[in-house]
Every structure is written in C-alpha cells, then in structure tokens.
C-alpha cells in the first residue's frame, strides 16, 4: 500500500466514524422532537439543566429553519458522508466536479453549524447536548475535507500545493481543538459556562 493510499484511507475512516456519530446525534434529536410533538410541555431525556438541554432548541424557529426539523438534514446529510467514506476506503476515484460538490455540501454544513452555534449561544442561550455532538464532528470533517480537496487536486493543479496540503492533514486534530476552544471561549464570554456544563455532564 502506497503512502498516499494510506493517507486517503485515514480520511475515509474519519468520514465513516464522523458520519456514524453525526447520524446518531441527528437520530436522537429526531426522537426527542417526536416526543415533544406528542407531549407538548413535556421534558426530553436530554434535558440536564436550564442551560443544557435540547428542548428549547427543538422548539425554536431556529430548530426548523427550512420548514422541517433540522435533524432531518442530519439524517440524510451524514448518510452522504458515510457513502463517501466507504468509497474512499474502497479506492473509488471520483472526478473533480464530484469532489467539488461534496466539498460544497460539507462547507454548507459548516456554515450552517456556525450559524446554529451563534444562535444557540447568543439568542437561545442554551447548549443542546446532541447539537454539540453534531458540532464536534462537523468541524473536523470540514477541516479534513478542505485539506483533502487540496491534496487530491480538486482545488489546485499545483503539485507543490498538493504536497504541502498532504502534510497539513496531521494538523487537523490540533486545528479542531483550537476551534473547540474558540467555541468554549465565546460561550464563556456570552455568560454561558460551557466548560463547567460539559464537565458536569461527563462527571
């Protein structure tokens, strides 16, 4: 197995892992949404505190921007990521336009997540556990996909740029941690003790 093939396998494995985690989070949010529809005024199983809950997000207009619950986007979108992950693992070669469309989809998901994060922190002022799981896998998926599109020639034809992009993939985990830290810092600045709530949720 060539070194390039090995690097691409790592990306494929991540897409599969991220898609399964993201899909499960979307599924749980869908179940909670159905529960709220059947039990108006009820309390979901992911309600931890006034600040850490899914209820307020699911019941808001931000929770159904396109006229239907946002988790339905996750149920379909993450399946596309899973298919791409399996295809990469199998060594399937896609044309540049196909990778470009996939990149646009991942970028759109990232933009949507950034907007949802801002709405959750500054408008709704609550932190949704399953939503945060979605954020947690979308961010590194976007970063890894961006690097991959440079190194596989989708975004550039320059051999030098592609080679340098290949070396950048190892920095995606660190960039992800920095992104998480920025979200936590923004939440703290907004008066939401995100770090404290996360620690309380785990322990």
From TrEMBL:
<feature type="transmembrane region" description="Helical">
    <location>
        <begin position="72"/>
        <end position="90"/>
    </location>
</feature>
<dbReference type="InterPro" id="IPR041714">
    <property type="entry name" value="VKOR_Actinobacteria"/>
</dbReference>
<dbReference type="Pfam" id="PF07884">
    <property type="entry name" value="VKOR"/>
</dbReference>
<dbReference type="InterPro" id="IPR038354">
    <property type="entry name" value="VKOR_sf"/>
</dbReference>
<keyword id="KW-0560">Oxidoreductase</keyword>
<keyword id="KW-0812">Transmembrane</keyword>
<feature type="transmembrane region" description="Helical">
    <location>
        <begin position="12"/>
        <end position="31"/>
    </location>
</feature>
<keyword id="KW-1133">Transmembrane helix</keyword>
<dbReference type="InterPro" id="IPR012932">
    <property type="entry name" value="VKOR"/>
</dbReference>
<keyword id="KW-0874">Quinone</keyword>
<feature type="transmembrane region" description="Helical">
    <location>
        <begin position="124"/>
        <end position="147"/>
    </location>
</feature>
<protein>
    <submittedName>
        <fullName>Vitamin K epoxide reductase family protein</fullName>
    </submittedName>
</protein>
<feature type="transmembrane region" description="Helical">
    <location>
        <begin position="97"/>
        <end position="118"/>
    </location>
</feature>
<keyword id="KW-1015">Disulfide bond</keyword>
<keyword id="KW-0472">Membrane</keyword>
<comment type="similarity">
    <text>Belongs to the VKOR family.</text>
</comment>
<keyword id="KW-0676">Redox-active center</keyword>
<feature type="transmembrane region" description="Helical">
    <location>
        <begin position="168"/>
        <end position="190"/>
    </location>
</feature>
<feature type="domain" description="Vitamin K epoxide reductase">
    <location>
        <begin position="8"/>
        <end position="149"/>
    </location>
</feature>
